[in-house]
Amino acid sequence: MKNYNQAFGFYLPTKLVYEIGAIKNKLASEIKVLNTDTVTIVTDKGVIGAGLLKNVEAALNEKKITYNIFDGVEPNPSTDTCYQCAETAKAISAGAFIAVGGGSPMDVAKTAAILMTNGGNLDKYEGVDKFEKDPLPILAIPTTAGTGSEVTPFAVITIRARNYKMTIVSYRFLPKVAFLDPTVLTSIPPHIAASCGMDALTHAIESYTNLVASPFTDAFGAEAIRLIGKYLRAFVANRADMEAAGAMCVASNLAGIAFGIARLGNVHAMAHPLSGFFNVPHGVANAIILTKVMEYNMLADHGKYKRIAALMGEDVSGLSDLEAAPIAIEAVQNLADDVGIPKTLTEVGVKKDKIEEMAKDAMLSGNVKINPRMSTLKDIINLYLSAM
Questions:
Q1: Is the separation of the CB atoms in 242 and 275 below 8 Å?
Q2: Are 336 and 360 in contact (CB under 8 A)?
Q3: Are 48 and 184 in contact (CB under 8 A)?
Q4: Could you state, in chain order, the average pLDDT of each consecutive group of 10 residues for the chain (388 residues)?
C-alpha cells in the first residue's frame, strides 16, 4: 500500500464532547477551565433566527459568565468582518471566543483570536504560523454537519478588494473544545443540510485520495464516507431524525480531522475562487465540481475508488479497480442529485469569462500540488468548463 512509503504524523489538540444536550451540560464548565469568565460569542443572524443561541446564553447566564455577541458573520467572511469581531471582543476584554455556527463563524473566531493578541493586518498572517503570540482560546459549537472547522487548522477569509480567498494555517487557533450536539442540527433548512453534507463528503474523498493521505487519515475519511453515504439522504429529509443527525455530526467531524491533517485537492482549490468571484456557497461549489474532478483523477487511482463505491453502499464485489471506479463517481453524483444539489455552475450564476482568472487563483492553492493527478492551468480551466 503506497501510504506506507511515506512518513506521516497525527495531532489533534481539540477535546471533543459528543452528547445530546452537551451545550446545556458541559459548556460553562469548559469555559471555567480556560480561567476566564468573559467571552464573545461569534455567530451569524441565521443562527440567531433559528433560536440556536438560547441554550448557549442560558448556560452562560446560569454560571454568571459575562458575554457579548458578534452576529455580523456573512457567508465567505471578509477581513473587515474579522476586524469588527475583534473590536466587539475588545469592548468587554473577552478572554475567549465561542464560535456558534458553520465554518464562517469559526473562521472569523480564529482570525479575531489572532487579532486580539497580535493586532495588525490579517494579510500578513496568510500562510502557516505567521503570527507570534498565541491567539485567545476558542470553544466551538458546530450547527451544521459539513465544514469540520472545529477540528481544522485553517481559516479561509475573503479579501474583497481582490476577490481573493486567503488561508491562514495554525494548530494554535484550533478550538480547545468542540461540542458535537446533534440537537443543534434540527433547525437547519434542507438545502443547507444538503450542501454541508456534500462539503463533508468532499473533505472525506479528497483527503482519502490525495498524495499525502496516510493510514490514520484514511481511517477517519473512510468512516466519514460510509456515514454520509448511509445517512445524508435521511438527514436532509428530516433533520430531527436523531440517528441521522448524530451520524452526520460525527461524519463531518471525522472528515474534518482527516483533511485537517492530509489536506485536500483540486476540488477545494477550484471552489474557493467560485466563492470569491461569484459568492457561490462553498458546499454547493464543492458538490458541483466533485464528480468532475473525480473523473479527472480516476487515471491516478490505485484502488481507492473501488473502496469508495463500497463505502457508499454499492456492490462492487468481483469487479476490478478499473471497473469499479466509475461506480464510485456515479454513487457520489446520485447522492448529490437526490439531495437537490444544482448540476452545473451555470445554474449558480458562474460566467465563463471569469474562468481563466479563477483558474489562475486555483493554481495558487497548495491543494493542487497534492491532488492525485498532476494538473496544469489548462487542466483547471477545462475542469471548470466541464462543470458549466
A1: no
A2: no
A3: no
A4: 62 87 89 93 93 92 95 92 97 96 93 96 92 96 90 89 86 94 89 95 97 94 98 96 93 94 94 90 94 97 97 96 97 97 95 95 94 97 96
Q: Could you give the C-alpha distances from 101 to 45, 52, 244, 282, 379, in angstroms and in order?
A: 10, 9, 19, 15, 35
Q: How do beta strands 96-101 and 38-42 pair?
A: parallel
**Spatial contact of 72 and 99, defined as CB atoms under 8 Å apart:** no
Those residues whose C-beta lies under 8 Å from the C-beta of residue 351, and which sit 6 or more positions away, are 278
Contacts of 5 (CB under 8 A, 6+ apart): none
3-state secondary structure of 174: coil
Please answer whether residues 272 and 165 qualify as being in contact, where contact means their C-beta atoms are separated by less than 8 angstroms.
yes
State the residue for C-alpha cell 491543494: 367
Q: Which of 30, 93, 27, 33 is nearest to 61 (CA)?
A: 27
What gap in Å lies between CA 207 and CA 214, rounded to an integer?
9
Q: Which of 53, 16, 41 is nearest to 184 (CA)?
A: 53
**CA 333/CA 232 separation, integer angstroms:** 13
Q: Which of 170, 33, 152, 42 is nearest to 99 (CA)?
A: 42
pTM score above 0.85 = yes
State the burial class of residue 209 (Cβ atoms within 10 Å of its Cβ: 0-12, 13-18, 19+).
buried
